[in-house]
Task: structure prediction
Amino acid sequence: MHAFVIEGGRRLEGRLRINGSKNAALPILAASLLTDQPVTLRDVPDLADIRNMLGLLAELGCPHSKRDDGGLALRVTNHSSSHARYDVVRTMRASISVLGPLLARRGVARVSMPGGCAIGDRPVDLHLRGLAALGASISLDQGDIVARAPAGGLRGATVFMGGPFGSTVLGTANILCAATMARGETIIESAACEPEVVDLARMLTAMGARIEGAGSPRIVVRGVDQLGGVEHTVMPDRIEAGTLMCAAAITNGDVTLENCPIDTMIAAVDRLACAGVSVRPASPTEDRLRATVRVTAGRYLAPIEITTQPHPGFPTDLQAQMMALLTLAEGNSVVTEKIFPDRFLHVAEMARMGARMFRQGPTVVISGVRKLRGAPVMASDLRASASLVIAGLAAEGTTTVNRVYHLDRGYERFEERLNALGARVERVGDRTLAPNQPAGSEA
Ligand code: EPZ
Result:
């Protein structure tokens, strides 16, 4: 088990390239199960969750190899096993992404029901309702979801994907994959509009799928008999980019980010601008999905209001990181979490560093303080751990963030990348870890 020991008060300066998106890559990897042809993926980040997914795909008969150019080559060689086992799914709930592709291509899928995680309950009822609408029979056996397509295969239908907290990103990915090979037309109403769904649709279209409306609340899919191989470059990670913007801003830094998907970050950039953080594209004409942007912040941060929403609203995956930044704003900020109302495990840890926060249900008021003080803190989930690192970068003295295995799920060599910008972060053996730590990933 590792911890980060962070020496605070150092300004971040320099240039960094944003990695490929974890949340785009996971369903895209699962979509490799839809074809027997070769799939080549570029810019897949080297993360714990990605390695878990690759291990699952190998168990499902879809091994991978590393290409000389750094890309990943995958190809299904065996259709005999369609069982995503509990001990794989419980460590990474995004394993649910194999459900739709397995059902579409093999007619059967057995996937362990993902449990909850640190950021809240993580139901999959919308996934299952959507697949049932396409004709699948769904049952639960020993904690596993067992889905079977009818004899003639899945059939197109109108599927409503809206839930009490908006749509579902991985649920939309599952239905989208299943619909590509369903007979007839499928309308996915109240589809997730996240850029990662658009990236998946780009890849599926290149494989021969017929998809319209990806990125809008209504996606229309016309089923085809089979899908071909593809070469696809995964979109940049907007959450890594937003995390680094907060890290630059809290240190009054001056950081240039390359390969930044600024076009998918308008809500986040808007909130940062209101807080006094400038995010400027280096040139207006370049590809706004892979832009170069310069991030600077003044010494004083203004308090703001944030409410997390489905895309194009402010992303829940940047809520904790923005909270860390706002602990030093000149006044009271208000953050309301509408996607995962309990996604606040970072609040108590930041309070140990002198942050002043007052939670009322899904809303937290952050009363800005003049400074944070370093302290030992405990990471609980992926984005909470990132927020504690951000707070540690600005805090006076030393901060130890324990259980950074959470961080390694979604950030590649994070301490090396921060140190390249002038931070002083050391990865050490965990100092306070209790012998048994919870399994389960929120991602
Ligand atoms: C994806 O999770 C992301 N993970 C999450 O990022 C992200 O927080 C989330 O979307 C929301 O944007 C990946 O893409 C791998 P949802 P997903 O289904 O698809 C409720 C990170 O930090 N819901 O869109 O699992 C659910 O409880 C991770 O990188 C149902 O009610 O999330 C939540 O309140 C964390 N029924 C809301 O919808 C369902 O069947 C959104 O969940 C499914 C979801």
Remarks:
- Residues 433-440 have pLDDT under 50 and may be disordered.
- The chain has two domains: 3-19+236-432, 22-233.
